[in-house]
TrEMBL record:
EC nos: 2.5.1.21
InterPro entries listed in its UniProt record: HSQ_synthase_HpnC, Isoprenoid_synthase_dom_sf, Squ/phyt_synthse, Trans_IPPS_bact-type, Trans_IPPS_HH
Domain of life where this protein originates: Bacteria
The organism's taxonomic lineage, starting at the top: Bacteria, Bacillati, Actinomycetota, Actinomycetes, Streptosporangiales
Protein's UniProt name: Squalene synthase HpnC
One Gene Ontology MF term: squalene synthase [NAD(P)H] activity
Gene3D superfamilies: Farnesyl Diphosphate Synthase
Keyword list, A-Z: Transferase
CDD domains cross-referenced by the UniProt entry: Trans_IPPS_HH
First-level EC class: transferase
Provenance organism: Nonomuraea purpurea
Length: 304
């Protein structure tokens, strides 16, 4: 482990085995296949490096002591600057990116946006409108899609635009799943205007069971996420090879989780609503089947 000045720890670049095992376990608990074994090893390794960085930054913003979080985010950003300056990284999550950044020609900007999202989490705890929440997703979720496209060498303006829709949808879906956990962390990602319109006081988010009013608000966000996911789904047909396989898995994860939320009738406080593996595989097959005919995605690509 690498001790930071004033306290706090990251795995250093020499002690990654335990960290990698923990990271793989976290990846298995995600709604979508982070780095499926259907992909070649080089792609899996690059995706896990990107996921490891994003996961580590999120953990800083959520799990470290509040007084330490901004300082630790500054430290990881400083290490990222060292990497892009051609100097050796000191911290494991950044050091693991070195080969990926070089081989895939990834710019620093998406990584900085992920760090900024977690800085925002320390000061902004509620969002008035859904549009404001989407503004947060531009920092917290959309950069991940950009990084995935860089990993596969499939970056273009239209694909990035579709990726943003998919990633924002996946972020909103995760917020629907984690309403109670987020509230316990002091954050509310359900738009306040929607809570007011439904007559759902904030106190309902702390209850042991999900009230009908809260279910209504969660269902509203899930429906919005479903619309975004549908708008972004043509990206699958706009990709080729292993990129298509991977991104179809992410889209399928969104669909499978939305189905799980519907099946649970948006009861998200007294249970962990997660998609079953069979549901994910079925959705993956459907996405690949329906979005692989020539032109299926390109006809709906937005202009660059």
């Amino acid at each position: 482990m690498f001790a930071l000045p004033g306290g706090g720890y990251f795995p250093d670049v020499r002690s990654e085995s335990c960290h990698s095992r923990k990271l793989a376990e976290k990846a298995r608990r995600e709604n979508f296949p982070v780095a499926s074994r259907l992909l070649p090893r080089r792609h899996r390794d690059h995706l896990m490096a990107v996921y490891g960085f994003a996961r580590s930054v999120d953990d800083i913003g959520d799990d470290e002591r509040p007084d330490d979080r901004l300082r630790l985010l500054d430290e990881i950003e400083a290490d990222l600057a060292r990497l892009y300056d051609g100097r050796p990284a000191r911290l494991g999550p950044v050091g693991a990116l070195a080969g990926t950044v070089q081989e895939c020609s990834i710019p620093a900007e998406p990584f900085h946006r992920l760090i900024e999202a977690n800085r925002r989490d320390q000061t902004v705890t509620r969002y008035e409108t859904f549009d404001e929440l989407l503004g947060y997703c531009e920092l917290s979720a959309n950069p991940v899609g950009h990084l995935v496209l860089y990993v596969f060498g499939e970056v273009s303006g239209p694909r990035l635009a579709l990726s943003d829709r998919v990633c924002s949808a996946l972020q909103v879906i995760e917020h629907c799943q984690d309403v109670g956990e987020d509230y316990r962390r002091g954050r509310v990602y359900l738009p306040e205007e929607d809570l007011r319109r439904a007559g759902c006081p904030i106190s309902h988010l702390a209850a042991a069971t999900t009230s009908p009013r809260l279910r209504k608000v969660v269902a509203q966000q899930a429906a919005r996420a479903g619309t975004l996911l549908g708008e972004g789904e043509p990206i699958v047909a706009a990709l080729s090879g292993f990129a298509r396989t991977a991104v179809a898995g992410y889209v399928a994860g969104g669909h499978a989780t939305l189905a799980a939320l519907r099946s649970a009738r948006y009861d998200i406080l007294d249970r962990a609503v997660r998609p079953r593996r069979v549901g994910l595989l079925w959705a993956w097959a459907r996405v690949l089947t329906t979005m692989t005919w020539p032109g299926a995605g390109l006809r709906r690509l937005p202009s660059a």
